[in-house]
Design goal:
alpha/beta; 13 strands; Rossmann fold; 37% helix; elongated; 6-stranded parallel sheet; 7-stranded parallel sheet; 14 helices; disordered C terminus
Length: 351
Amino acid sequence: MQKIVLTGGGSCGHILPSIALLPELKKHFDKIYYFGENDSLEQSIAKENNLEFFHTKAIKLTRGSILKNLAIPFVLPKAIYDARLLLKKLSPDVVFSKGGYVSLPTTIAAQLLGIPVVVHESDNTLGVANKLASYTAKRVIMPNTHANKSEKYVQIANPLRAKILNGNARKVMIEHQLRINFQNILIIGGSLGASSINDVIMNGISELTAKYNIIHLTGKGKISHIKTEGYYPLEYASNIEDYYAVADLVISRAGAGAIAELKALGKRAILIPLPDSCSRGDQKINATDSGYLVMDQNDLDATSLLHNIACVIDSECPESNYDYATPKKIVDVIITAKNMRVNSPNNTAKY
């Protein structure tokens, strides 16, 4: 019986690429498990996709806060120990990590047990968890490997769920009773929301709704209670493909997954990457390389946003660049790494 553990968490970008691989993974693995945090986005998404979910403890590195990071040396060893016990119990053939702080205990535990690890990085630079895992991983998959010459690095684009490419605009039109004869703008601050973007939208809501339908995904716990014609707020959309389909323009953070979806769908977009104070700078790199119009969060206000919307919303849509074979290519790499294991999967002596 062939078994695989998927891990990653902290945002939707750390689990949705794994979900995109499920149809191909099911051709090769009898059991597919997911390791993540309880009461998290990854847990709810895993359950929606009928994945057997296991809780693993994790602790996040907080950039710019020494005090909050003091607990890491005390919490991380226990998290690794617990992950190791789970892995010994399940005896997977391979671990596939999408990164994020949630993945780190599992990848370290897998490497201690001699279980092959495959790291997948959506950005052009490795995040902290993936960088640590990459040193002993059998394979590291990235959309750009120019800076990494080792044969373990494999260049493959980011995988997308099949449903993303098959949205139904009519569903959203009917559900929200969108005004006809208005162009539709979809605003996404990422799965966790973006308060700075939300504030700008609120400040300019009258001017925005005078010209456009504004569909605003605010993020969990950040729902706006403003009632105005043409404004359609909701925390999160599990059927994001339908919202993409109805959108004439998307305003988004610059996560690699979001950009991959926008480019695959040939959508017009304005990107507002996370500032360096909130990230390692990966979103700014993603945005710069995307070809989309980019706005600096520090310069963002309602006036500048309205101006840029007017410049972009009637421009030519970009051509889709998605390779439909991407999920298969990634799973082929996983199978290669699995076969690199020296000891038999059923031999638990090393465990």
